[in-house]
UniProtKB/TrEMBL annotation:
Keyword Signal attached: yes
Organism: Parafilimonas terrae
The protein, known as: DUF3108 domain-containing protein
Signal peptide annotation: 1-20
Keyword terms of this UniProt record: Signal
Superkingdom classification of source: Bacteria
Length: 265
């Protein structure tokens, strides 16, 4: 179950980006984050209404060069709570390299170690040819396609003020050698109280693909900070057994003050 929770978390974060097929957002400029940023989340799991600390996830960015192109190197890690390692130990690492000019990925790496199961994935994106090449082959992808981690940073640059409540924002992503076409439904703004504190937040619900963890549909809710940083604050969703809650618990080197914060717990 710990493995499923952490996989859940990365699936949730995927759903934060905008449509790569919408020219208005193809090659969006970064105004939300900077190199050196670090954000940490706690993943909670519940079966009977009592949430337990199941693991943590962390996202960091640095400024580097890839093939002489300036890129953001973002790293996302997922780790099971050490007290549950004897049941199921998880040590997952996701990396993406995306250019600083248009926030489009050039390379994606996934290394997972889940209960002894290990998998490595390495994807190279060719923007001119609109292809993604993995160890399984080369695949045609839409213009401005994102990977599962670059999507997080791309999404944070959404201008939510241009949408009305119940508007659908379509998006596409490349995952496990497939292109997925989904959407998020904008739900407006509200105050959300998390384990870290209380925030003014932007709220939306992503359409999910039916799978072994999620039933599919719009049953997940996501809150991001209603300020220029647009960092994820809370994610809630039922799963096949119980439910999960993901809360932002620590941040460093944000580009702007976290002005959406009303109070700290």
């Amino acid at each position: 179950m710990i493995r499923k929770l952490l996989v859940c978390f990365f699936c949730l974060i995927i759903c934060l980006r905008l449509s790569a097929d919408n020219d208005e957002f193809c090659g969006i400029r970064n105004t939300a984050f900077k190199a050196g940023e670090s954000i940490t989340f706690t993943v909670y799991y519940s079966v009977i209404g009592i949430y337990i600390n199941a693991g943590t996830a962390n996202f960091t960015t640095t400024l580097e060069k890839l093939n002489n192109i300036p890129v953001y190197h973002a790293v996302g890690t997922g780790t099971s709570n050490s007290r549950y390692d004897w049941i199921f130990k998880v040590r997952d690492r996701y990396e993406t390299f995306f250019d600083t000019a248009y926030l489009l990925p050039l390379k994606f790496i996934r290394n997972v170690n889940e209960g002894g199961y290990k998998k490595t994935e390495n994807i190279t994106f060719n923007r001119k040819a609109n292809t993604a090449t993995s160890t399984k082959g080369t695949y045609t992808v839409p213009n401005c396609i994102q990977d599962v981690l670059s999507a997080v940073y791309y999404a944070r640059n959404i201008n939510f003020s241009q949408y009305k409540i119940d508007d659908k924002i379509p998006f596409s992503m490349f995952l496990d050698n497939q292109v997925y076409n989904l959407y998020i439904r904008y739900l407006g703004k509200e105050v959300v109280k998390t384990r870290y504190g209380k925030f003014n937040a932007i709220k939306f619900s992503p359409l999910l693909v039916k799978g072994t963890i999620f039933e599919g549909g719009e049953k997940m809710t996501v809150w991001v900070s209603d300020d220029a940083n647009h960092i994820p604050l809370r994610i809630e969703s039922p799963i096949t057994v119980g439910s999960i809650k993901v809360d932002m618990m620590q941040y460093r080197n944000l580009r702007y003050p976290l002005s959406s914060k009303i109070s700290v717990r």
